[in-house]
């Protein structure tokens, strides 16, 4: 039987609507307009698209958007000075440094220079520790969006077997913590896991975040399992024809072979239109949460983990 498609684009629109509602209450009742600062270093084309999209959606939900675009050869000292300035600006509730950074910049150092309360990416070591110990934290956007979709589809996740493929700090590890927090039995698998297909066959929930195009095959998926595909890979698509310079056109695929997995899964997220749009929606959600916390107001309902 064909799987149900979990429509991340539609779900993200509902999250943004909720965010807009909270923003308008914050403005009307407390005179607070949440502000999000996004820092982009360099000219990575994909990062430029994501940053533009973040700015546009921030404004659409009624928040202030501040963009800092720095040259690719910006020094670490200059970047740290900018972060320090944003940390001390009371009109800024959320700070995000777009990743990846150019090679000469130390990503860990930069991320850990962001005030944890304004770290709307949830990558700061303090937020990582808080999440790992089940305390209130800023939760990384992609795992938060994936969890929201899983909860919406299943209701309770308690007792389900979840396999997270990928052990990155940005997705795999926080995703595993969130699933554990919802009482799943969690396995973190990765490219060196022995008998990976067999490990995945035991899962009621599969989260693929390994960064390898279409690696997870349909016959790895247990009948009826829910598949969350976090991968965003651009691969050549000769079937779409060629560009003017003769190079093949490209297409976007996930870490899951969608066609075969959809034959066995009970539900699956597509790429594009699955987890990706939820990443930006959850960034906006985290910014509202940060603004509420900064002003000792109750947590916005339905937007946190
Ligand atoms: N500081 C951060 N850097 C990066 C993050 C992050 O969460 N924080 N995540 C990714 C990039 N990213 C947001 O920054 C992001 C990736 C993908 C999408 C998205 O909507 N994808 C669409 C397809 C878009 C396309 O055509 O390329 C989809 O999947 O439907 C949004 C945000 C790395 N860096």
Automatic annotation (TrEMBL):
Q: Where is the Tetrahydrofolate dehydrogenase/cyclohydrolase NAD(P)-binding domain?
A: 140-293
Q: Which GO terms describe its molecular function?
A: methenyltetrahydrofolate cyclohydrolase activity; methylenetetrahydrofolate dehydrogenase (NADP+) activity
Its assembly, as annotated, is: Homodimer.
- The reply on keyword Cell cycle is no
Q: What is this protein called?
A: Bifunctional protein FolD
**What is the protein's known function?**
Catalyzes the oxidation of 5,10-methylenetetrahydrofolate to 5,10-methenyltetrahydrofolate and then the hydrolysis of 5,10-methenyltetrahydrofolate to 10-formyltetrahydrofolate.
Residues annotated as binding NADP(+) are 166-168, 232
Q: What is its EC number?
A: 1.5.1.5, 3.5.4.9
PROSITE patterns according to UniProt: THF_DHG_CYH_1, THF_DHG_CYH_2
Q: Which UniProt keywords apply?
A: Amino-acid biosynthesis, Histidine biosynthesis, Hydrolase, Methionine biosynthesis, Multifunctional enzyme, NADP, One-carbon metabolism, Oxidoreductase, Purine biosynthesis
Instruction: State if Oxidoreductase is listed as a keyword.
Output: yes
């Amino acid at each position: 039987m064909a799987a149900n498609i979990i429509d991340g684009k539609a779900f993200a629109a509902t999250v943004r609507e909720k965010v807009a509602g909270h923003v308008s209450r914050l403005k009307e009742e407390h005179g607070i307009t949440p502000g999000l600062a996004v820092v982009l270093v360099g000219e990575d084309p994909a990062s430029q698209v994501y940053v533009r999209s973040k700015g546009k959606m921030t404004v659409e939900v009624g928040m202030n958007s501040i963009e800092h675009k720095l040259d690719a050869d910006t020094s670490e000292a200059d970047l740290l000075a900018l972060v320090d300035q944003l940390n001390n600006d009371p009109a800024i509730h959320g700070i995000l440094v777009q990743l990846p950074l150019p090679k000469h910049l130390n990503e860990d150092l930069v991320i850990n220079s962001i005030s944890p309360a304004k770290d709307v990416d949830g990558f700061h070591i303090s937020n990582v520790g808080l999440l790992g110990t089940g305390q209130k934290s800023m939760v990384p956007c992609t795992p938060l969006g994936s969890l929201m979709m899983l909860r919406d589809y299943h209701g309770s996740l308690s007792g389900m077997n979840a396999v997270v493929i990928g052990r990155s700090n940005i997705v795999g590890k926080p995703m595993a913590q969130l699933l554990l927090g919802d009482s799943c039995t969690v396995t973190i698998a990765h490219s060196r896991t022995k008998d990976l297909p067999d490990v995945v066959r035991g899962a009621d929930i599969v989260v693929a975040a390994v960064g390898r195009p279409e690696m997870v095959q349909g016959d790895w998926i247990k009948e009826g399992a829910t598949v969350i595909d976090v991968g965003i890979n651009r691969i050549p698509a000769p079937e779409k024809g060629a560009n003017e310079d003769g190079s093949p056109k490209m297409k976007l695929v996930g870490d899951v072979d969608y066609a075969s997995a959809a034959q066995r899964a009970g539900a699956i997220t597509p790429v594009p239109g699955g987890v990706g749009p939820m990443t930006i929606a959850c960034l906006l959600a985290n910014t509202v949460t940060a603004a509420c916390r900064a002003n000792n107001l109750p947590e916005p309902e339905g937007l946190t983990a």
